[in-house]
Design brief:
alpha/beta; 6 domains; 8-stranded mixed sheet; 65% helix
Length: 1268
């Protein structure tokens, strides 16, 4: 069978992916394959029949089993008798889905032992030498059994996911739409239930349950007529299952029987009367739209139509007709499901089979069916169009009629093409079976160089780890602001750009590029081992230069760039050289510039995607920064050693035959389409155009990545894990796009692919603009599902990854598709400068474009235009690049359409209409009220806080909004407007109940502070806390806030609360992160007050690490005090203990207060702070001396220094329970607290109170024993 091994691998990957998903989503580790004889006897027979009997029957009846027919007939008779014996012993309600596997169990045993007997290792034990037929049977049986087992279990697991990850369905709306057919499905179901005729019900149930088995058994006549290669039956079997899952997720439908239960179909008046929209449905399969049962049955009809014996066609047609009735008679589907499936059957089925003479892509009716199905899916997915369908049933009938007519016409056209399709002759069959392998072997290079791509995967993995580790090191030194972060990124990429250019020059001048590649990888690894010491040195230098310079001063940006170049220059330049050097090496062994670039790019990007994913979830949480650096260095050194080892085994590339490039004809890979002949001027113009697209495309790539990550921080979350997912999905999209490049080059030329890629980016950006609101609703929809299933951390991250993929992967896919095409065109034009030098120059242009994209999007356009308009500008730029490349490469278009001018014009008109519609429909602005509900945090809709009345958006501050909600007092009836301040949907404060709570948090540390000199407030929020402290008479107040947006919007809307404290004469504002301010300023404070939004925000945990507390200790005056907000809700107990112990490692006196449900840490190293003070700084004699407000604050005390000392004793080795900048414990652990199934606040309070009681009990016991 054609590509049997490949499809078996795909089936295994499907199973593995669904198994991992089941493990994360459902918290199940069951592999799904019970031991055949581990259960009841009837289930054991069923398992044997499914596991081994189906594949054995296919190969036996398909004439591929080296066993006499009488043996297999005897096995069939044994199976038949087994069923009747089992039925006699236990007359259970057997249906055909159980009967057939029981009958096949003996065939399965015979087939399995035949397989074992002919296996090479076992055959030698018996002295048996299998012939060619037996060897072929062993291979076929093994892979076919794997496909059947893996496909069946993967399908079951995938359907299990749908009932959890799709809480809401469109069933209510779909039932209203289905009313257009005058209750056809309702009446069919009612008739089936009312008139219980055993024979009719048995037929219906049997046909419905047998679809998967019968579809597999259709292999038998295909094999008997030797058409498995002609009809692509393996593709027909597997691909629909993959497509079905995507369709189910796009338009989730559970089916009337499962949604409406006993109300269907008689009591549906309430459903018809209720408002339109999605509804929550308890866990059940969402496999309704389209009806893949009917589609699967029609696939059998389409395959059977190609067979010589038409009895199979008529039987399949009868089976499909009964399936059509069964889907509705059993209450599984609406009629609408089947109507949508009708054009799908033609579009998907005929494309998968694609028999000789059909050529689906040349058939207009095929495109009509494809567009009709896509139109149905889009209309049913979008609320606006779905509501339109429910309100205009005449349109539903009209469009349904068009769909059915098109499907029938397509089916008739298909029958005309394949009805008399001849079976392949013996010579054709043998040529297909054996000569294809020989041709593939001849097309391969004489020396295998696949290991090169393996090295690039490892190199990409290590490179991504380096980038993350270096960014985290420099983020601590230069500050956590976006200005500092993007400066580091630009510096990193600048080194890569320079390295690409230098690597191209070097590669053309050395005899052995692989040796230099190994050398550079070794140097990278050795240098990486020295980076921890280098970062410490850079930190000392930066602090010396930045001392007492305002953190927002431009001179600091210059120092960051220079110091970044010093520490990152060598490794980034060397990393940049690897692509042109390895390209030059492969040019000696492989033909086709674009092919080589695509493979290297894919390998490196996929390695980087793995690095982003594994680094975020495994490496950094487990090994920390130093361990991750050493692991990446180990990878680099191992790459170098392996490259040297392979170098010794390689012959000279001159001995390897490669394609010879003819002057004026572009170099292409094997089987790739060549450009029409061009003169020097045309090649120059095309090369210049490619360089422009490479450069400006680089701008679009990084700008798009930054803007989408900025928006996903609002939608999907801004923990360190979320950013890892965003990066990983973006890189996966790039890798998948470049993987497709090699396939497309067999039909299209590089200019056409580059144009399609840029157009794809344009449409992906436009379409993503309509996804944001729906993704917010998707997170909110999980609220009711909590009553049925708890989503743990792994499950939430998997869902979050899917959301990130929806936004990130489509544009990244087209970027990855266009990159090899444009790079190949550019390097082909620049080849006169050298093979690798041309690639190096093109890579330099692309990377410089990336840098420009980072700087322009991060520092200019996002702040100026906002995300909505900036995405639109990027879409317009991609469209302009597409039109530019289409015009420059216009000579390639007739060839792409096989010189069919009418098809070319029609495609151009359709594209133009789509572009105009996309530009016209782009949303003018986001629905900010919807975007900022914060549903991604706890997977439920947060409390409604009203409509957004004002907003600010910047790369530094994210999306800051003010929501207004008018409330009516229950007793007085008075209306009051509550304003709420949100950052990326996370609560910052309000002008209602939170005011008093924030006042308590701000005043609590004053019980331990005597002096009123200098105070530092980290985090502005509504400005209430800063105002409260300002009222206490401090001589000078410094406020550190990441973004001016927060201060600006807070002063406008919360001025009555904060009294415009930021504008007071003795208040100084610093727009930077608090840690960097303390690092670069030598000023000392009496009080440092810190109140951030959440610890689990990416980078926020740096303010709870030991190094931060050491820095605070150095910046406090002799009697200075630190006050720090700490989260008690959604906080794992161990994380809370880490925070308390880390703080106690640096401060002798630590108190924990609980004020307004929030934790307040107070720390100091002087005995003076241990004495109780009034709020005005006077020392209090006792608690009785305190006023009412002071007593209320003091009563919130939960832990005192003695309790902290006791905690350290209980931990035994407290130095091990410390979060540092190196181990990053809190940054990677605290996000998991959002997925806790219990009330963490109550648990943590009880835990700490019990610890306090234990300490008091132990202390009282020691006191009593001392007295005795």
């Amino acid at each position: 069978m054609r590509h049997l091994k490949l499809w078996a691998v795909i089936a295994v990957l499907m199973y593995v992916s669904t198994f991992i998903g089941k493990m994360f989503l459902l918290q199940e580790v069951n592999i799904g394959f019970p031991i055949p004889i581990s259960q009841s006897i009837e289930i054991a027979f069923v398992n044997l029949g499914i596991y081994f009997g189906i594949s054995g029957s296919v190969l036996w009846l398909g004439k591929l089993m080296p066993v006499r027919n009488r043996i297999m007939v005897f096995a069939l008779v044994v199976g038949y008798l087994t069923f009747w014996l089992q039925y006699a012993l236990d007359a259970a309600d057997y249906h055909a889905g159980l009967i057939l596997p029981i009958m096949l169990w003996a065939i399965g045993i015979a087939a399995f032992f035949t397989f074992l007997y002919n296996c090479p290792g076992i055959a030698r034990l018996f002295g048996h030498v299998p012939d060619a037929a037996a060897q072929r049977y062993v291979s076929h049986y093994f892979y076919l059994t794997i496909i059947i087992l893996m496909l069946g279990q993967a399908t079951t697991d995938a359907l299990d996911f749908t009932q959890i990850i799709l809480p809401q369905t469109i069933d209510a709306d779909l039932y209203k739409i289905d009313a257009a057919f005058w209750g056809f499905a309702d009446n069919l179901y009612a008739t089936f239930i009312q008139y219980q005729q055993p024979l009719w019900q048995s037929i219906i149930i049997s046909v419905y349950s047998l679809l998967a088995i019968v579809l597999t058994l259709l292999f038998i006549p295909v094999l008997r007529e030797r058409r498995e290669g002609q009809l692509n039956v393996l593709r027909v079997l597997i691909v629909p299952f993959i497509c079905a899952y995507m369709f189910y997720c796009f338009t989730p439908v559970a089916g009337p029987l499962y949604v409406f239960e006993d109300d269907y179909p008689a009591n549906m008046g309430a459903i018809l009367a209720q408002a339109k929209g999605t509804i929550f449905v308890p866990p059940t399969f969402r496999n309704g739209m389209p009806s893949m049962h009917f589609a699967g049955a029609m696939l059998m009809v389409l395959v059977a139509a190609c067979l010589t014996r038409k009895v199979y066609f008529y039987a399949a047609a009868a089976f499909a007709a009964i399936t059509f009735i069964a889907t509705m008679a059993m209450g599984e589907h609406y009629l609408m499901d089947l109507i949508v499936a009708a054009p799908l059957c033609i579009a998907l089925g005929t494309a998968l089979i694609n028999p000789p003479g059909w050529h689906f892509y040349k058939r207009r009716i095929w495109w009509v069916c494809m567009l009709l199905f896509a139109a149905w899916e889009i209309m049913l997915h979008a609320d606006t169009t779905r509501f339109f369908l429910a309100d205009h049933l005449w349109f539903v009938r009209l469009f349904s009629a068009v769909s059915v007519i098109a499907a029938v016409y397509g089916f008739a056209a298909y029958l005309r093409a394949v009805w008399y399709l001849p079976a392949p002759s013996e010579a054709q069959y043998q040529a297909y079976s054996w000569q294809e392998k020989a041709a593939v072997a001849q097309a391969r290079p004489q020396i295998s160089v696949r290991w090169v791509f393996g090295l690039f995967v490892c190199s990409g993995f290590a490179g991504l780890l380096y980038e993350v580790v270096f960014a985290k090191h420099l983020g601590v030194i230069f500050g956590g602001t976006s200005l500092a972060a993007y400066t580091v990124m630009a510096t990193y990429m600048g080194g890569m750009a320079l390295g690409a250019w230098l690597g191209g020059l070097l590669a053309d001048r050395v005899r052995n590029p692989l040796k230099w590649y190994a050398l550079f990888e070794a140097v990278i690894g050795v240098y990486a081992l020295a980076t921890p010491a280098l970062f410490k040195l850079i930190a000392h230098i930066y602090v010396a230069f930045a001392a007492d310079v305002r953190p927002d001063s431009p001179v600091l940006t210059l120092w960051r760039v220079l110091l970044g170049v010093i520490v990152l220059g060598i490794p980034t330049i060397l990393m940049g050289t690897t692509l042109p050097i390895m390209f030059k090496f492969l040019r000696g062994y492989l033909p086709g510039r674009g092919n080589i670039i695509a493979h290297l790019y894919t390998a490196n990007i996929m390695g980087a995607a793995l690095g982003a994913l594994i680094g975020a979830y495994v490496v950094l949480p487990s090994l920390g920064l130093t361990g991750a650096t050493r692991l990446a260095a180990l990878f680099s050194l191992m790459i170098a050693l392996y490259a040297i080892d392979r170098l010794k085994k390689l012959p000279d590339s001159a001995q390897v035959v490669v394609a010879v490039e003819v002057e004026g004809i572009a170099d292409v890979g094997a089987g790739h389409v060549m450009l029409p002949s061009q003169n020097a001027w045309q090649r120059r113009r095309l090369g210049i155009a490619a360089l422009w697209v490479v450069s400006l495309g680089g701008v679009v790539t990084l700008a798009l990545e930054i803007v989408n990550m900025h928006m996903l921080a609002v939608i999907a979350g801004n923990s360190v894990y979320a950013f890892g997912l965003m990066l990983a999905t973006f890189l996966c999209g790039l890798g998948l796009g470049s993987t497709l490049y090699d396939k497309l080059r067999r039909w299209l030329t590089d200019p056409v692919i580059a144009t399609i890629a840029q157009l794809g980016i344009f449409f992906a950006i436009i379409i993503s603009a309509f996804q944001w609101d729906g993704l917010v609703d998707y997170f909110a929809s999980f609220g009711p599902m909590g009553a049925y299933h708890h989503f743990g951390f792994a499950a939430r991250e998997l869902i979050r990854a899917a959301v990130c993929a929806i936004i990130m992967m489509p544009p990244a896919f087209f970027i990855g598709l266009g990159y090899p095409a444009t790079m190949a065109l550019a390097s082909d034009w620049l080849k006169n400068r050298g093979e690798a030098a041309g690639l190096g120059i093109a890579s330099l242009c692309n990377t410089l474009g990336n840098i420009a994209g980072v700087l322009l999007a991060g520092f200019v356009f996002l702040n100026w235009l906002g995300s909505n308009r900036l995405l639109f500008v990027l879409a317009i730029l991609s469209l302009a690049l597409a039109l530019y490349m289409a015009y420059i490469g216009r000579t390639a278009w007739p060839q792409a359409f096989r010189y069919n001018s009418s098809a070319q014009r029609a495609t151009g008109i359709v594209a133009l209409i789509a572009i105009v519609f996309a530009l016209w429909s782009y949303p003018a602005q986001w629905n900010l009220t919807q975007l900022t509900v914060g549903a991604n945090v706890y997977f439920s809709a947060d409390n409604y806080r009203g409509e957004v009345i004002d907003s600010r958006e910047s790369i530094q501050g994210g999306l800051t909004t003010v929501n207004s909600l008018t409330m009516k007092h229950k007793e007085t009836g008075e209306h009051k407007t509550m304003l709420t301040l949100l950052t990326n949907g996370k609560f910052q404060g309000n002008n209602a109940g939170e005011v008093q709570a924030q006042r308590g948090v701000a005043l609590t540390p004053l019980l331990h502070v005597q002096e009123r000199g200098d105070v530092l407030v980290i985090g502005y929020g509504t400005g209430n806390s800063a105002h409260v402290l300002h009222e206490q008479g401090f001589a000078q107040m410094d406020i550190a806030e990441l973004a001016a947006d927060m201060v600006d919007i807070a002063d406008i809307h919360f001025g009555e609360i904060n009294k415009l404290v930021s504008q007071q004469d003795n208040v100084r504002m610093y727009y930077t992160d608090g840690r960097n301010l303390l690092l670069t300023q030598n000023k000392r404070y009496d009080l440092i007050s810190m109140e951030i939004s959440s610890i689990w925000f990416a980078g926020a945990a740096n303010l709870y690490n030991r190094e931060f507390y050491q820095l605070v200790k150095a910046r406090l005056k002799e009697n200075g005090v630190l006050q720090q907000w700490v989260q008690l809700h959604h906080m794992q107990p161990m994380d809370l203990l880490y925070i308390l112990n880390t703080l106690h490692q640096e401060f002798r006196y630590v108190w924990l207060y609980v004020s307004g449900g929030q934790g307040v840490l107070v720390a100091s190293n002087t005995e003076e702070s241990a004495r109780l003070h009034h709020l005005d700084g006077r020392i209090a004699v006792s608690t009785e001396d305190l006023d009412a407000e002071e007593k209320a604050l003091h009563e919130d005390l939960l832990l005192e220094p003695a309790d902290m000392d006791y905690l350290a004793q209980k931990l035994r080795k407290p130095q091990f329970f410390v979060s540092t900048d190196n181990n990053l414990y809190l940054e990677y652990s605290t996000p998991k607290g959002n997925a806790l199934a219990y009330d963490a606040f109550t648990y943590n309070i009880n835990m700490l109170e019990k610890m306090k009681q234990d300490r008091l009990h132990k202390q009282n016991g020691q006191t009593s024993s001392t007295r005795e």
